[in-house]
């Protein structure tokens, strides 16, 4: 089974390389995606696959750690113009938050299970205590009458 998976991977890489035509293109990187990109060198195309824990970084034009790469592939957040503080990571449904310090992204921190980040309190909290878009605070719950019908 492992042999078959390896064979499929190799054949797909060969097929994608053969399908690309770099003969009329200058050397460079083309068709970048989160995990792969096409490298053209001297008219020859080769598909580059990033390692499991890496994604393509448009700035450096190479595979890089996710923390160094912006969305949608990476986890780097833009802190330009943001005050020092903790911010809910809405891309991750507020289950984590990130820190900005002197307009520099300092990293992500996860909340414990079933909690979301409450920016007002700068801590992880129950959804019922947190304003939207991270929580449910202030939303009217659907209630049922004694007969099981919605009111």
TrEMBL record:
It holds the Pfam family CBM_14. It comes from the Eukaryota. InterPro entries: Chitin-bd_dom, Chitin-bd_dom_sf, Chitin_bind-dev_reg. The keyword Repeat applies. Gene3D superfamilies: Chitin binding domain. Keywords: Chitin-binding, Disulfide bond, Glycoprotein, Repeat, Signal. GO terms for cellular component: extracellular region. GO terms for molecular function: chitin binding. Coiled coil: none annotated. Residues 1-19 form the signal peptide. Residues 19-75, 76-136 form the Chitin-binding type-2 domain. SUPFAM superfamilies: Invertebrate chitin-binding proteins. The keyword Glycoprotein applies. This is Chitin-binding type-2 domain-containing protein. It comes from Mytilus coruscus.
